Amino acid sequence: MKAFPARWLGHDWFSLIRGPFPDVRFVATGGLDAGNVGGFLDAGVRVAAVGSALEDPGQMSELVALIASRSRPAGPVSGGD
Predict the structure, then answer these.
(1) How far apart are CA 64 and CA 58, in angstroms?
(2) Do residues 25 and 54 make contact, with C-beta atoms less than 8 angstroms apart?
(3) CB-CB contact of 35 with 10 (8 Å)
(4) Are the CB atoms for 63 and 52 separated by under 8 Å?
(5) What is the pTM assigned to this prediction?
(6) Max alpha carbon distance in the chain (Å)?
(7) How many angstroms separate the CA atoms of 25 and 22, rounded?
(8) Per-residue DSSP letters for the chain?
(9) Which of 8, 25, 66, 78 is the most buried (most CB within 10 A)?
(10) Whole-angstrom Cα distance, residue 49 to residue 40?
C-alpha cells in the first residue's frame, strides 16, 4: 500500500500501523532522502521511494552507502540432491 506523504506521516506512524495491520506491505513515498530513509526502513517499510532527492548529486553517494550497508550477501545454495 502506498503511503504518501511519508515524511509528514513519519516513520513512527509505520511502526504503529503495523500492529493492527501486520500483513500490509507499505511503500513510503514523499519527502524521503538519504537523511531519513533509514528510519522508514527500520520501521518496517518494504519499499522506500526516493524521488526528488535523486536530483541532488550529494544524496546519491549517501543512498548507495545506505543500500550497501543493508544488503545481505547471498548464502550458499543447497543442491537438494
Answers:
(1) 11
(2) no
(3) no
(4) no
(5) 0.80
(6) 52
(7) 8
(8) -EETTHHHH-HHHHHHHTTT-TTPPPEEESS--TTTHHHHHHTT-SEEE--GGGGSHHHHHHHHHHHHHH-----PPP---
(9) 66
(10) 11
Neighbours of 66 (CB within 10 A): 16
- Type of residue numbered 27: V
Q: How far apart are CA 81 and CA 79, in angstroms?
A: 5
pLDDT tens-digit series, residues 23-80: 999 999 999 999 999 999 999 999 999 988 888 888 988 998 998 998 866 556 555 5
CB–CB of 41/48 below 8 Å?
yes
Place of cell 504518501: 4
